[in-house]
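just leaving the lab so this will be short. what follows is a protein written twice so to speak, once as letters and once as structure tokens for the fold. can you read through it and tell me how you think this chain folds. anything you notice is useful, everything is just below:
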Amino acid sequence: MARVAPDFTVVLRGFDREEVDALLAEFAAGALAPEDLTRVHFTVVLRGYDRDQVQQYLTLLAAGPAPQRPDPGPAQRQPVFGKAPFLVKGYDRAQVDALVARVAPVLAGGGGITADEIENAVFGAARSGYDCEQVDRGLDAVVHELRGRA
């Protein structure tokens, strides 16, 4: 199951964008094993990718892909969130995407995350982030569904 790299935030001092993009391309091509992602060191440069976002994403990839399941149907597909309004910071996309990746298998009938973990999730603010209200509504709906199954 191929994953699309998140839209990492560019910060003043972050990981070299070319190095990160090259690593993700190698991983997508199957040239690297998931455990190789935890042993990588990137050069810190001016105007690089946010280091925390990259590390979180690599940790998620290293955990391995979720088992492939048939399409769960429109009611259980991963939500798509819009961007925050202009000049307003939204939720960090990489952090939200990482949480949503853990939610999808649960909605398809597997395990991975609890309603309490979703309720207690905290996301950093970022320019060009996801609209906070949309994310909150989407996650509240997931929590409601999970609690209804219990």
Observations:
- Residues 74-149 form one domain.
- The chain has two domains: 10-62, 74-149.
